[in-house]
Specification:
single chain; alpha+beta; five-stranded antiparallel β-sheet; 4 helices; 5 strands; 26% strand; globular; DUF3037 domain-containing protein; DUF3037
């Protein structure tokens, strides 16, 4: 029987108008130290974003979301944050900020398969 491991996750949000605090869930980032897992799944539905009548540059927004994924993966072109260890990258990505791309509070749980858990959370919190 496979052992359960502690994981942490946060919902990635787009906040078109920060002053209004309205947001759209666009992804989930999940970190599991025991499984050496840090990954973000992002799905931007531009038609949902249009409901907010925000004057956002979608190309810039997409670039920021791609950077989020690259930092998770620790890719060479992800800048100085991407060079940190996985725990530090997760903490940096989920730090409180007042920008268009934000993360929810961090939530803990237990999982046997981090990727399966990430897929399930993404389905429940972003795609539904």
């Amino acid at each position: 029987m496979q052992e359960s491991h502690l994981f942490e996750y946060a919902v990635i949000r787009v906040v078109p108008r920060v002053e209004r605090e309205e947001f759209i869930n666009v992804g989930v980032v999940l970190y599991c130290a025991k499984q050496k897992f840090l990954k973000a799944l992002i799905s931007l539905d531009e038609s949902r974003l249009e409901v907010f009548k925000a004057d956002l540059d979608c190309d810039v927004l997409k670039a920021n979301l791609i950077a989020f994924e690259r930092i998770c993966a620790g890719e060479k072109d992800s800048g100085p944050i991407g060079k940190l260890d996985a725990a530090s990258r997760f903490r940096w990505l989920t730090a409180t900020r007042s920008t268009v791309v934000q993360a929810s509070k961090v939530h803990p749980g237990f999982c046997k398969d981090a990727m399966e858990t990430l897929d399930k959370l993404h389905q429940q919190l972003v795609l539904l």
